[in-house]
């Protein structure tokens, strides 16, 4: 992991809600309602559920999720018009190792 990516991830994590999103996505079945369109969390959690749990505006959460996906913290999967996000554990592990 290079210093530029570490800096981008650090900027992303300088926001409490973004950290909360990563925490929620550790155990999606415990933190979000069951999906109506698919019966598993293999592709992550629908952005709508993340937005609803956060209590922030849809545009704010959309911006947060996009930034987190761009720096590699989240993986985006689309099912039709729905966007699903899950943690990119590999990048999170690399980031924490770099900081050690």
TrEMBL record:
Keywords: DNA-binding, Transcription, Transcription regulation
InterPro entries, alphabetized: ArsR-like_HTH (IPR011991), HTH_ArsR_DNA-bd_dom (IPR001845), HTH_MetalResp_TranReg (IPR051081), WH-like_DNA-bd_sf (IPR036388), WH_DNA-bd_sf (IPR036390)
Chain ranges of the HTH arsR-type domain: 1-100
Gene Ontology molecular-function annotations: DNA binding; DNA-binding transcription factor activity
Superkingdom of origin organism: Bacteria
Signal peptide: none
Gene3D superfamilies registered for this protein in UniProt: Winged helix-like DNA-binding domain superfamily/Winged helix DNA-binding domain (1.10.10.10)
UniProt xrefs under PANTHER family: TRANSCRIPTIONAL REGULATOR, ARSR FAMILY (PTHR33154), TRANSCRIPTIONAL REPRESSOR SDPR (PTHR33154:SF33)
Name of the featured protein: Transcriptional regulator
Organism whose genome encodes this protein: Portibacter lacus
């Amino acid at each position: 992991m290079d210093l530029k990516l570490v800096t981008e991830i650090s900027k992303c994590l300088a926001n409490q809600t973004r950290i909360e999103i990563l925490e929620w996505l550790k155990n999606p079945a415990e933190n979000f309602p069951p999906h109506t369109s698919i019966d598993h969390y293999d592709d992550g959690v629908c952005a709508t559920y993340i937005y609803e749990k956060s209590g922030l505006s849809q545009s704010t959460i959309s911006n947060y999720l996009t930034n987190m996906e761009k720096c590699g913290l989240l993986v985006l999967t689309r099912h039709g018009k729905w966007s699903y996000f899950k943690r990119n554990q590999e990048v999170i592990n690399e980031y924490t190792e770099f900081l050690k």
